[in-house]
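Ticket 4471: requesting a sanity check on a complex prediction with S-adenosylmethionine. Repro inputs:
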Amino acid sequence: MASTPNRSTPPPFDPSVPGLAARHVAREAVATLLGPARGLALEDALAQAARGARLEPGEAALARAIATASFRRLGFIQAALAARLRDGLPENRPHLLALLVTGAAQILDLAVADHAAVDLSVRLAKADPQLQHLAPLVNAVLRRIVRERDAIRAEETDPLAHNTPDWLARRWRAAYGEAAARAIAAAHLEGAAVDLTLARDPEIWAERLGGVRLDLGSVRLVEAREAVADLPGYAEGVWWVQDAAAALPVRLLAPESGERVADLCAAPGGKTAQIAAAGAAVTAIDRSAARLERLGRNLERLGLTAEVLTTDALALPEDTPFDAVLLDAPCSATGTLRRHPDVAWTKSETDVFRLVGLQRRLLDKAARLTRPGGRLVYCTCSLEPEEGSGQIADFLNRHPDFERIAITPDRVAGHAELIDPSGDLRTLPSHLAGGTGRAGGLDGFFASLLRRKD
Ligand SMILES: C[S@@+](CC[C@H](N)C(=O)[O-])C[C@H]1O[C@@H](n2cnc3c(N)ncnc32)[C@H](O)[C@@H]1O
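Returned structure tokens:
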């Protein structure tokens, strides 16, 4: 099939057809990420595609669900399509590929009616001047996926081979071994529950919200169906959404009332809120004004305060060092694939190497901002060793004035499996697998607790 020229405007669709707008937005967002704009996050691609589409909240949620399901099983879905297309997958035609992938994702993975998945995909093809001649092909392939669904699902036996890009599968095998790499890939297919951090009365609110109190401290909402903003306690500022693993770095930093704490990469503020809720005087720094606006709104809802600085953390003055410093560094985010499966397909090893350099400079800066005797926690939501244990090994070589405080199991509710051999926190998506499906799992976080010698 010939490639199509880049589009400057999205193809038209009829907004009066129920369900079509959600499919249009999902298809546009997936096409954007499969096309030249690979570096974009799915959230941003969805927001971009939804501009002008006037989606109701339910339609926006459906668009997100379709796009997320498309990336969660992208390798497997593409293989299933390729086996049913005479000429294989369309090359250099992201809109056609995205139409087929989003259609197949609905049929294989989502509880939507088959006829809606097929017919609305065909409608989108017909409305698109560049694809209308291929509408019969879209119809035939998606109907075949419906007919052969059970057989196709039975072929998905190896998530590491099917749904993990080679560069990540290779790295995880090397870092964690074959069995753990397989468990990580399998956990990604389960998705993630909504975890909450509570400012007060976790037992009472866990019950009121119908959630489970995790021994790590968070409350897990396994069955959350409505928008989080409609749940009890949101408006009152009792809790905020934060993966149970993401809440651990601040628990390790253990900020105390009256301490001066710097949160160097703070937005949108989940960890800032924890530090402020502990009674510490927190300075929240981030170079993104837009993300800091979200931090401001979040803190306001929670009734918490912080000094907020919009600046590059590398440019901060070093004259008044802090009692404790948190560096939640920008990273490849490969620990968050349960929620953001697009990351696996839009990032590359080059991103990892580029970020390692920035993390190193931020860590050196964080060290200079920590007072003698003070604590420094470095963390990332990455599974890549260079962004975690490798970064800390290099740091300790460069900084003999710092020492690691090894994390003991009692700091993580007895979960010794969350601690690596050096004494750092190393959570995996396959951890906490006691529950089935969304009841288990954690984001993949690394955290090291360091102390500046007196
Ligand atoms: C992993 S996110 C932080 C998440 C946040 N700590 C939380 O818990 O909600 C990384 C943040 O680092 C910020 N960032 C990246 N480079 C920075 C720099 N040089 N100085 C300050 N902030 C930076 C990004 O804007 C982004 O908001």
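Notes from triage: The pocket of S-adenosylmethionine is lined by residues 265-271, 285-288, 291, 312-314, 328, 330 (CB under 6 Å). Leaving this open until the requester confirms.
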